[in-house]
Amino acid sequence: MNDFTNCPQLYKYRAVDLLPEPPSIDAERGKLIHSVLEDLFELPAGSRTFESALELLPTKWREQLEGKPELAALVLDDKEWFDRAQALLTNYFSLERPSTFESTYRELHLERDISEEIYLHGYVDRLDVAPTGEVRIVDYKTGKSPKPGWEEKALFQLRVYALLYWQNEGVLPKLLQLIYLGDSRVVKSEPTEAQLKSTEKILRNIGDEILTALETNHFPTKKSRLCDWCFFKAICPAHN
Ligand code: SF4
Mind telling me which residue stretches traverse the membrane in this protein (predicted)? Predict the structure, then answer.
C-alpha cells in the first residue's frame, strides 16, 4: 500500500510483475537487528542484557548468510558491519531495559479481510500486553527518526496494526511506539477510535485504487525524490 501511494508504477514492478531486486545492505542490517531483538525476549528476563544481545549477533548473522549466501558480497568489512550493528544495539539499550518487562508477542501476524476483495495482513515487531490488560504495539526502525512534522506518516503503519488488533480482539491498543535506533529516538502515540476508523477509510480507498489499477492495467508513474533510490529507474518510462 505504501508503494502504491508513493508510485503506482513502482507497485506494479514489485507486486504485480514480481521483478527481482538486489538485496539492500540497510534492509539486511535491519533484519539482523530485528532477529537479535526477537530472540533476546526468548531469554529469561534477567538474561536480557546488552552482552547477551551482542552474543546473539554473530549467530543470527550466520543464519542470515546461510539463507542468502549472496549477502556475503555486500559486506566488505566484517568489523565495520558488526561495529554498526553493535552501535544500534547500544542505542536500543539506551531506550529500553528489556529485563524489566515481559513481551507477549514478537513478529505477531495480524490479518483480516477488510472487504470482500481486500485482504490485509502484517507482522508486528512486538506487542506487549500489560498485567492490567493495556496493549502496546512496538516497531523497531534501524534508520533515523522522521523530521518534525513527518511523524504522522510514520505512525500510519502502526495504526494499521492497531486497527487489525482492535477489530480482531476487541481491544483498542493504548500505545503505539516507533523505536528509532539510528538516532535513539522514540515516537509515541495513543491511538483513538476516531483515528483508527479514519485509518480504515484510507486503507479502503487505497485498496479500491489498487483494484481499479489492476482492472484497467493503468499504473501511472509518480516522479519524486524516491526515484533516486528506485532500482527500476533504468526501465521506468518516466525516466526513459
Ligand atoms: S523511478 Fe520513480 S517514477 Fe519510476 S517506478 Fe521508480 S519511483 Fe516510480
Answer: none
As a CATH number, domain 105-216 is 3.90.320.10
Q: Specify the residue with its C-alpha closest to ligand 1, atom 5.
A: 10
Give the amino acid at 79. K
pLDDT one-digit tens code per residue, 35-64:
999 999 999 999 999 999 999 999 999 999
Q: Ligand 1 pocket: which of 11, 13, 19, 233 to mutate (most atoms <8 Å of CB)?
A: 233
Residue/partner pairs of 152-160 with CB below 8 Å, 24 or more apart: 154/178, 154/187, 155/187, 155/189, 156/199, 156/202, 157/2, 157/122, 158/189, 158/191, 159/191, 159/195, 159/196, 159/199, 160/120, 160/122, 160/199, 160/203
Beta carbons within 8 Å of 239's beta carbon, 6+ residues apart: 223, 227, 233
CB 177 within 8 A of CB 188: yes
Q: How far apart are CA 127 and CA 78, in angstroms?
A: 32
SS3 141: strand
Q: Which residues pair with 140 in a beta bridge?
A: 179
Lining ligand 1 with CB less than 6 A are 7, 9-10, 221-223, 226-227, 230, 232-233, 236, 238-239
**Where residue 213 falls among pLDDT bands split at 50, 70, 90?**
very high
In the chain, residues under CATH classification 3.90.320.10 are: 105-216
Nearest CA to ligand 1 atom 2: 227
The per-residue pLDDT of the chain, averaged, comes to 95
Contact between 201 and 193 (Cβ < 8 Å): no
